Amino acid sequence: MLAPTLTLSFDLELLHGWTDSPPGLRARKRAELADFRPRFARLVAALERHAVTATFAIVTHLLLSRGLTAAEYAQVDRLQELADCPADADSPWFGRDLVERLLASRLGFEIGCHSFSHRPFDALDAAAAALELAQSCRLAQSFGLHLRSFVFPQNRDGHRGLLAQHGFRCYRADARHETVGPRWRKAVATWLATAPPRPRQPVLDEHGLVALSPSLHLAGFAHGPKALLRRLPPVDTFRRYVDRGLAATVEEGGVLHFWMHPEEYGHDVLSDDLDYLLGRAARLRDQGKLAIASMGSVADLLLAEAGR
Ligand SMILES: [Zn+2]
Questions:
Q1: Which domains, from first to last, does the chain contain?
Q2: How far is ligand 1, taken at its centre, from the CA of residue 203, in Å?
Q3: What angle (nearest 5°) sits at the alpha carbon of residue 259, between those of residues 32 and 188?
Q4: What is the pLDDT of residues 256-302, one digit of tens each?
Q5: How remote is the CA of residue 156 from the centroid of ligand 1, in Å?
Q6: Which residues does 163 contact at the CB level (< 8 Å), separation at least 6?
Protein backbone atom coordinates (compact mmCIF):
# COMPACT_ATOMS: atom_id res chain seq x y z
CA MET A 1 0.00 0.00 0.00
CA LEU A 2 1.27 3.49 -0.78
CA ALA A 3 1.76 5.85 2.16
CA PRO A 4 -1.34 7.94 3.01
CA THR A 5 -1.80 10.36 0.11
CA LEU A 6 -4.42 12.85 -1.01
CA THR A 7 -4.82 13.44 -4.74
CA LEU A 8 -7.13 16.04 -6.26
CA SER A 9 -7.99 15.98 -9.95
CA PHE A 10 -9.90 18.75 -11.70
CA ASP A 11 -11.42 18.27 -15.17
CA LEU A 12 -11.14 21.66 -16.87
CA GLU A 13 -13.32 21.74 -19.97
CA LEU A 14 -15.52 24.88 -20.06
CA LEU A 15 -18.26 24.46 -22.68
CA HIS A 16 -16.52 21.50 -24.36
CA GLY A 17 -18.06 19.30 -21.68
CA TRP A 18 -21.53 20.15 -23.03
CA THR A 19 -21.15 19.95 -26.82
CA ASP A 20 -23.31 16.82 -26.96
CA SER A 21 -26.00 18.20 -24.64
CA PRO A 22 -29.44 19.42 -25.76
CA PRO A 23 -29.38 23.11 -26.78
CA GLY A 24 -31.30 24.25 -23.67
CA LEU A 25 -28.86 22.63 -21.28
CA ARG A 26 -25.90 23.89 -23.24
CA ALA A 27 -27.28 27.44 -23.10
CA ARG A 28 -27.73 27.14 -19.34
CA LYS A 29 -24.17 25.91 -18.89
CA ARG A 30 -22.93 28.71 -21.09
CA ALA A 31 -24.70 31.22 -18.84
CA GLU A 32 -23.18 29.58 -15.75
CA LEU A 33 -19.73 30.03 -17.25
CA ALA A 34 -20.21 33.80 -17.46
CA ASP A 35 -18.64 34.22 -14.01
CA PHE A 36 -16.27 31.26 -14.33
CA ARG A 37 -13.00 33.15 -14.52
CA PRO A 38 -13.37 34.91 -11.16
CA ARG A 39 -14.50 31.62 -9.61
CA PHE A 40 -11.47 29.87 -11.10
CA ALA A 41 -9.20 32.56 -9.64
CA ARG A 42 -10.77 31.96 -6.20
CA LEU A 43 -10.33 28.20 -6.54
CA VAL A 44 -6.64 28.54 -7.37
CA ALA A 45 -6.22 31.03 -4.52
CA ALA A 46 -7.84 28.56 -2.09
CA LEU A 47 -5.45 25.80 -3.19
CA GLU A 48 -2.52 28.19 -2.78
CA ARG A 49 -3.71 29.35 0.64
CA HIS A 50 -3.54 25.78 1.89
CA ALA A 51 -0.52 24.89 -0.29
CA VAL A 52 -2.42 21.95 -1.78
CA THR A 53 -1.27 20.95 -5.26
CA ALA A 54 -3.49 19.14 -7.78
CA THR A 55 -3.83 17.79 -11.29
CA PHE A 56 -5.81 19.88 -13.78
CA ALA A 57 -6.78 17.62 -16.69
CA ILE A 58 -7.58 20.05 -19.48
CA VAL A 59 -9.45 19.78 -22.74
CA THR A 60 -6.48 20.77 -24.87
CA HIS A 61 -8.60 22.81 -27.29
CA LEU A 62 -8.35 25.41 -24.51
CA LEU A 63 -4.67 25.87 -25.43
CA LEU A 64 -5.40 27.19 -28.93
CA SER A 65 -4.80 30.86 -29.54
CA ARG A 66 -7.38 30.78 -32.34
CA GLY A 67 -9.83 28.28 -33.77
CA LEU A 68 -8.68 25.54 -36.12
CA THR A 69 -9.65 25.58 -39.80
CA ALA A 70 -13.05 24.23 -40.84
CA ALA A 71 -11.32 21.19 -42.39
CA GLU A 72 -9.50 20.46 -39.14
CA TYR A 73 -12.73 20.75 -37.13
CA ALA A 74 -14.37 18.38 -39.60
CA GLN A 75 -11.81 15.76 -38.51
CA VAL A 76 -13.06 15.99 -34.94
CA ASP A 77 -16.64 16.21 -36.11
CA ARG A 78 -17.67 19.33 -34.20
CA LEU A 79 -17.14 23.02 -33.43
CA GLN A 80 -17.29 24.20 -37.04
CA GLU A 81 -18.65 27.50 -35.75
CA LEU A 82 -15.27 28.21 -34.16
CA ALA A 83 -13.32 27.91 -37.43
CA ASP A 84 -10.59 30.55 -37.58
CA CYS A 85 -12.19 32.54 -34.77
CA PRO A 86 -9.83 34.34 -32.37
CA ALA A 87 -9.68 33.20 -28.74
CA ASP A 88 -11.47 35.96 -26.86
CA ALA A 89 -10.51 36.57 -23.26
CA ASP A 90 -13.84 35.42 -21.85
CA SER A 91 -14.54 32.65 -24.34
CA PRO A 92 -16.14 29.42 -23.07
CA TRP A 93 -14.10 27.55 -25.72
CA PHE A 94 -10.55 28.81 -25.09
CA GLY A 95 -8.48 29.04 -21.92
CA ARG A 96 -4.78 29.76 -22.35
CA ASP A 97 -5.16 32.36 -19.61
CA LEU A 98 -6.37 29.68 -17.19
CA VAL A 99 -3.46 27.37 -17.90
CA GLU A 100 -1.01 30.26 -17.65
CA ARG A 101 -2.43 31.07 -14.22
CA LEU A 102 -1.87 27.47 -13.10
CA LEU A 103 1.67 27.41 -14.43
CA ALA A 104 2.49 30.67 -12.68
CA SER A 105 1.71 29.12 -9.30
CA ARG A 106 4.55 28.14 -7.02
CA LEU A 107 2.61 24.96 -6.22
CA GLY A 108 3.64 23.27 -9.47
CA PHE A 109 0.15 22.17 -10.50
CA GLU A 110 0.21 19.26 -12.91
CA ILE A 111 -1.41 19.88 -16.29
CA GLY A 112 -2.97 16.62 -17.44
CA CYS A 113 -5.10 15.82 -20.46
CA HIS A 114 -8.87 15.46 -20.82
CA SER A 115 -8.67 14.86 -24.62
CA PHE A 116 -8.77 17.50 -27.35
CA SER A 117 -12.50 17.80 -28.04
CA HIS A 118 -14.13 15.94 -25.12
CA ARG A 119 -15.58 13.15 -27.26
CA PRO A 120 -16.02 9.97 -25.20
CA PHE A 121 -13.28 7.46 -26.00
CA ASP A 122 -15.55 4.41 -25.94
CA ALA A 123 -17.43 5.93 -28.91
CA LEU A 124 -14.32 6.63 -31.02
CA ASP A 125 -12.47 4.34 -33.37
CA ALA A 126 -8.73 3.95 -32.83
CA ALA A 127 -7.81 6.50 -35.51
CA ALA A 128 -10.05 9.16 -33.97
CA ALA A 129 -8.74 8.47 -30.46
CA ALA A 130 -5.15 8.62 -31.73
CA LEU A 131 -5.91 11.98 -33.35
CA GLU A 132 -7.30 13.32 -30.05
CA LEU A 133 -4.11 12.28 -28.26
CA ALA A 134 -1.68 13.43 -30.95
CA GLN A 135 -3.32 16.85 -31.17
CA SER A 136 -3.30 17.14 -27.40
CA CYS A 137 0.39 16.25 -27.11
CA ARG A 138 1.34 18.63 -29.92
CA LEU A 139 -0.58 21.54 -28.42
CA ALA A 140 0.83 20.84 -24.97
CA GLN A 141 4.37 20.73 -26.35
CA SER A 142 3.89 24.09 -28.03
CA PHE A 143 2.99 25.33 -24.56
CA GLY A 144 6.11 23.72 -23.08
CA LEU A 145 4.13 20.96 -21.39
CA HIS A 146 4.56 17.19 -21.32
CA LEU A 147 1.28 15.41 -20.62
CA ARG A 148 1.50 12.38 -18.33
CA SER A 149 -1.95 12.00 -16.75
CA PHE A 150 -5.21 11.39 -18.60
CA VAL A 151 -8.85 11.72 -17.59
CA PHE A 152 -11.38 10.14 -19.97
CA PRO A 153 -14.15 12.46 -21.24
CA GLN A 154 -17.36 11.56 -19.38
CA ASN A 155 -15.21 8.99 -17.54
CA ARG A 156 -15.82 6.66 -20.47
CA ASP A 157 -12.79 4.45 -20.82
CA GLY A 158 -11.33 3.33 -24.14
CA HIS A 159 -8.12 2.90 -26.18
CA ARG A 160 -5.86 2.71 -23.13
CA GLY A 161 -3.09 1.15 -25.22
CA LEU A 162 -2.95 4.38 -27.23
CA LEU A 163 -2.37 6.36 -24.04
CA ALA A 164 0.80 4.38 -23.39
CA GLN A 165 1.91 4.90 -27.01
CA HIS A 166 1.52 8.66 -26.62
CA GLY A 167 3.69 8.80 -23.52
CA PHE A 168 1.04 8.93 -20.81
CA ARG A 169 1.86 7.35 -17.45
CA CYS A 170 -1.52 7.17 -15.71
CA TYR A 171 -5.25 7.74 -15.98
CA ARG A 172 -8.26 8.11 -13.74
CA ALA A 173 -10.14 4.82 -13.73
CA ASP A 174 -13.65 3.62 -13.00
CA ALA A 175 -15.31 6.92 -12.14
CA ARG A 176 -18.40 6.51 -14.27
CA HIS A 177 -20.62 5.01 -11.59
CA GLU A 178 -20.34 8.29 -9.71
CA THR A 179 -22.02 10.40 -12.37
CA VAL A 180 -24.79 8.10 -13.59
CA GLY A 181 -27.61 6.47 -11.64
CA PRO A 182 -30.56 7.52 -9.49
CA ARG A 183 -29.79 10.68 -7.55
CA TRP A 184 -32.17 10.00 -4.68
CA ARG A 185 -30.74 6.55 -4.03
CA LYS A 186 -27.26 8.03 -3.96
CA ALA A 187 -28.40 10.83 -1.67
CA VAL A 188 -29.89 8.40 0.85
CA ALA A 189 -26.74 6.26 0.72
CA THR A 190 -24.70 9.39 1.39
CA TRP A 191 -26.89 10.42 4.28
CA LEU A 192 -26.69 6.96 5.82
CA ALA A 193 -22.97 6.91 5.04
CA THR A 194 -23.24 3.39 3.68
CA ALA A 195 -20.34 3.97 1.30
CA PRO A 196 -18.03 6.74 2.55
CA PRO A 197 -15.01 7.61 0.38
CA ARG A 198 -12.14 5.17 0.73
CA PRO A 199 -8.44 5.28 -0.06
CA ARG A 200 -7.58 3.39 -3.24
CA GLN A 201 -4.49 1.46 -4.16
CA PRO A 202 -3.28 2.48 -7.63
CA VAL A 203 -2.57 -0.48 -9.89
CA LEU A 204 -0.46 -1.11 -12.99
CA ASP A 205 -2.61 -2.11 -15.95
CA GLU A 206 -1.71 -4.39 -18.86
CA HIS A 207 -0.22 -1.44 -20.79
CA GLY A 208 2.14 -0.44 -17.98
CA LEU A 209 -0.03 2.54 -17.08
CA VAL A 210 -1.02 3.42 -13.53
CA ALA A 211 -4.79 3.27 -12.99
CA LEU A 212 -5.91 5.68 -10.27
CA SER A 213 -9.44 5.05 -9.09
CA PRO A 214 -11.32 7.97 -7.57
CA SER A 215 -12.75 7.99 -4.07
CA LEU A 216 -15.41 10.67 -4.51
CA HIS A 217 -16.82 13.22 -6.96
CA LEU A 218 -17.09 16.31 -4.77
CA ALA A 219 -20.10 17.80 -6.59
CA GLY A 220 -23.73 17.20 -5.74
CA PHE A 221 -23.69 18.26 -2.10
CA ALA A 222 -24.73 21.85 -2.83
CA HIS A 223 -28.03 21.29 -4.66
CA GLY A 224 -30.61 18.58 -5.13
CA PRO A 225 -31.31 15.49 -3.03
CA LYS A 226 -27.92 15.24 -1.32
CA ALA A 227 -28.10 18.89 -0.26
CA LEU A 228 -31.65 18.46 1.10
CA LEU A 229 -30.75 15.43 3.21
CA ARG A 230 -27.55 17.11 4.27
CA ARG A 231 -29.55 19.71 6.19
CA LEU A 232 -31.08 17.04 8.40
CA PRO A 233 -29.45 16.31 11.71
CA PRO A 234 -27.34 14.81 13.14
CA VAL A 235 -24.31 15.53 10.95
CA ASP A 236 -23.20 17.42 7.90
CA THR A 237 -22.82 14.60 5.40
CA PHE A 238 -20.20 16.33 3.25
CA ARG A 239 -17.91 16.99 6.19
CA ARG A 240 -18.47 13.52 7.57
CA TYR A 241 -17.43 12.09 4.19
CA VAL A 242 -14.28 14.19 4.10
CA ASP A 243 -13.37 13.32 7.68
CA ARG A 244 -14.01 9.61 7.23
CA GLY A 245 -12.07 9.46 3.99
CA LEU A 246 -9.08 11.24 5.49
CA ALA A 247 -9.16 9.16 8.69
CA ALA A 248 -9.31 5.87 6.75
CA THR A 249 -6.43 7.01 4.54
CA VAL A 250 -4.20 8.02 7.44
CA GLU A 251 -4.94 4.72 9.13
CA GLU A 252 -4.70 2.35 6.16
CA GLY A 253 -2.54 4.14 3.58
CA GLY A 254 -3.38 4.42 -0.12
CA VAL A 255 -4.63 7.30 -2.21
CA LEU A 256 -7.71 9.30 -1.28
CA HIS A 257 -8.64 10.69 -4.68
CA PHE A 258 -11.24 13.45 -4.89
CA TRP A 259 -12.24 14.92 -8.24
CA MET A 260 -14.49 17.66 -9.58
CA HIS A 261 -14.76 20.21 -12.36
CA PRO A 262 -13.35 23.68 -11.61
CA GLU A 263 -16.57 24.88 -13.28
CA GLU A 264 -18.48 23.41 -10.31
CA TYR A 265 -16.63 25.55 -7.78
CA GLY A 266 -18.98 28.12 -6.31
CA HIS A 267 -22.01 26.38 -7.85
CA ASP A 268 -22.17 22.61 -7.28
CA VAL A 269 -19.23 22.58 -4.89
CA LEU A 270 -19.49 25.26 -2.22
CA SER A 271 -16.31 27.20 -1.59
CA ASP A 272 -16.73 26.67 2.17
CA ASP A 273 -16.88 22.93 1.62
CA LEU A 274 -13.70 22.82 -0.43
CA ASP A 275 -12.04 25.08 2.12
CA TYR A 276 -12.98 22.65 4.86
CA LEU A 277 -11.47 19.74 2.91
CA LEU A 278 -8.27 21.62 2.08
CA GLY A 279 -7.86 22.80 5.67
CA ARG A 280 -8.27 19.29 7.08
CA ALA A 281 -5.85 17.82 4.55
CA ALA A 282 -3.27 20.58 5.08
CA ARG A 283 -3.35 20.03 8.83
CA LEU A 284 -2.71 16.29 8.44
CA ARG A 285 0.06 17.06 5.98
CA ASP A 286 1.67 19.51 8.41
CA GLN A 287 1.49 16.82 11.10
CA GLY A 288 3.40 14.48 8.79
CA LYS A 289 0.48 12.07 8.47
CA LEU A 290 -0.55 12.69 4.86
CA ALA A 291 1.20 13.39 1.57
CA ILE A 292 -0.55 15.54 -1.04
CA ALA A 293 0.43 14.66 -4.60
CA SER A 294 -0.73 15.05 -8.19
CA MET A 295 -1.84 12.05 -10.25
CA GLY A 296 1.46 12.17 -12.15
CA SER A 297 3.53 12.18 -8.95
CA VAL A 298 1.60 9.21 -7.55
CA ALA A 299 2.20 7.37 -10.83
CA ASP A 300 5.93 8.20 -10.78
CA LEU A 301 6.18 6.78 -7.28
CA LEU A 302 4.39 3.58 -8.18
CA LEU A 303 6.31 3.12 -11.43
CA ALA A 304 9.63 3.68 -9.60
CA GLU A 305 8.63 1.04 -7.04
CA ALA A 306 7.81 -1.31 -9.90
CA GLY A 307 11.24 -0.60 -11.43
CA ARG A 308 9.88 1.10 -14.57
ZN1 LIG B 1 -15.21 16.16 -18.83
A1: 5-303 (3.20.20.370)
A2: 23
A3: 85
A4: 999 999 999 999 999 999 999 999 999 999 999 999 999 999 999 99
A5: 10
A6: 133, 150, 171, 207, 209
The answer to whether 217 and 186 are in contact (CB under 8 A) is no
Inter-residue contact 205 to 161 (CB < 8 Å): no
Distance from residue 236's CA to the centre of ligand 1 (Å): 28
In contact, 64 and 87? CB cutoff 8 Å: yes
Spacing, Cα 261 to ligand 1 middle (Å) = 8
Contact 193, 236 (CB under 8 A): no
pTM, whole model, 2 decimals? 0.95
CA of 285 to the centre of ligand 1 (A): 29
Q: Are 241 and 197 in contact (CB under 8 A)?
A: yes
Q: What is the CA(289)–ligand 1 centre distance, in A?
A: 32
Ligand 1 center from residue 18 Cα (angstroms): 9
